[in-house]
Amino acid sequence: MSATESSSAPSPRPPVSLAEVGQYSCGLTLVFVLASTCWVLLPYTGDLFVALVFLMAIVLAGTWWNRGPVLMMAVVSALVWNYFFIPPQFTLHIDKPQDMVMFSLFFVVALSMGHLITRLRAREAALAQHHQEREHLLELKHRAELLAESERLHRTLLDSVAHELKTPIAIIRTALDGLGQGNPYAREIETANRRLQRIVESFLEMTRVESEALEPQPDWCEIGDVLHAATKPIQEELAAHPLLITGTTDLPLLRLDSRLLAQVLGNLLHNATRYAPAGTHIEIAASLAGSTLELRVRDHGPGLPLGAEDQLFEKFYRAPDSPAGGTGLGLAIARGLMRAMKGDIEAHTHPTGGAEFVLHLPVKTRSTA
Q1: Strands laid side by side in the 344-349 sheet
Q2: Neighbouring C-beta atoms of residue 97, cutoff 10 Å
Q3: For residue 195, which of 284, 299, 319, 323 has the smallest C-alpha distance?
Q4: C-alpha dist (Å) from residue 21 to 25, 57, 68, 94, 218
Q5: In the prediction, which pLDDT does 161 show?
Q6: How far is CA 72 from its chain centroid?
Q7: CA–CA dist 236, 216 (Å, integer)
Q8: Residue among 158, 163, 74, 115 nearest 333 (CA)
Q9: Which of 59, 37, 62 is nearest to 49 (CA)?
Q10: CA nearest neighbour of 261 among 338, 204, 313
Q11: Using N-to-C axis directions, what is the helix angle for 258-275 and 223-231, rounded to 10°?
């Protein structure tokens, strides 16, 4: 069979439901009951009364039943009225022209009313469904608005708290400078103050990322300067992890936002120092494929939790065995900054062990500018 023949073949009709079979049975039973009752009353009412009774039954059936049983009831009622009630009785033959006209009108009216009433009922059902869908959409819209307002208030709270904490952090920093290096607690206070400052900066950066207030400022720079800016704030954390940097010397001048990229790398490196054992290397590999800069940051720790490659970039997500003290914002900020620069970041466990983060960033080089 050709494709044309198969496409033009009529689609199979859906099977008749058990409820519709019941409607057909009830329709036949109702016609029988009405015909029996009208047969008893025929000497007192006449055959036109029988036609009106059948029409009323068809109208009532149309308000409850499907189209098929109603039309069947209309046809059977017309035949029963003709056979049992229109002279000459017990035959489908009609002698009088006026009886022929009445029978024809009854047949047309019965079919038309059954058809129209079932169509009206179907339209009412469609309108009711449309109303339900509209109510559902309005409810979803209301929920979305509540979630958006809740998220806005959440960002506002984080931003307010972070700004309020900046002043006491600066005061602690000034006090530490006054204590000098001779105080035995100065180093611990400085470490805690630096951690608190990093948390506050993370909150502030997260609010900027979510509010889409970031506007990248690309400029010409060397990738080595970007790496220096990324590692300088976390020199103490990187002291236990030698850096192996490859590929940077072969890259030309690149046009990108060095501040945002440095922050992304700083977050990744800080994350690596938290999970990789002390003394293990952290590797940074840079390469250029056409107009896309690729940076790989790999540690030699336990790797990523199975199936958590995308969850890592969600706000406040922390792996089950995460060290204490983190906020779960570093990787979320990193992805937000990369996407603000029209790039992206992905993560996976390296085949030989450890977590590896791959950054893809569109850039311009001096030769293609």
Answers
A1: 243-246, 282-289, 292-298, 355-362, 344-349
A2: 8
A3: 323
A4: 6, 18, 10, 33, 73
A5: 62
A6: 47
A7: 29
A8: 158
A9: 37
A10: 338
A11: 50
Tokens representing residue 318 in the block: 């922390």
Residue 88 preceded by cis peptide, ω within 30 = yes
Distant-in-sequence, close-in-space partners of 180: CB < 8 Å, separation ≥ 6: 186
Distance CA 261, CA 361 (A): 9
Buried b (16+ CB within 10 A) or exposed e, 212-242: eebeeeeeebebeebbebbbebbeebbeebe
Query: What whole-number distance in Å separates Cα of residue 346 and Cα of residue 309?
Result: 8
Which runs of E-coded beta strand occur in 155-281? 219-221, 243-246, 254-256
% helix, strand, coil for the chain, step of 5: 60, 10, 30
Task: Please check whether residue 284 is in contact with residue 297, taking contact to mean a CB–CB distance below 8 angstroms.
Answer: yes
Q: What is the DSSP string of 34-60?
A: HHHHHHHHHHHH-HHHHHHHHHHHHHH
What are the tens digits of pLDDT across the range 254-306?
A: 999 999 999 899 989 988 988 889 989 999 999 998 899 999 999 998 888 88
- CA dist 303 and 249 (Å) reads 28
Residues 6+ apart with CB under 8 A from 118: 62, 65, 66, 67, 70
| C-beta atoms surrounding 192 within 10 Å | 12
- Is the pLDDT at 2 greater than 70, yes or no? no
Give which of 196, 269, 195, 198 is closest to 229, Cα–Cα.
269
Strand partners, 284: 245, 297
Of 205 and 349, the structure prediction assigns the larger pLDDT to 349
pLDDT, tens digit (0-9, with 9 covering 90-100), for 301-351: 888 888 777 788 887 777 766 666 566 778 888 888 898 899 999 999 999
Cα–Cα distance for residue pair 211/156, rounded to 1 Å: 10
What distance in Å separates the CA atoms of residue 284 and residue 152, rounded to the nearest whole number?
Answer: 37
Structure tokens at 244: 């192996």
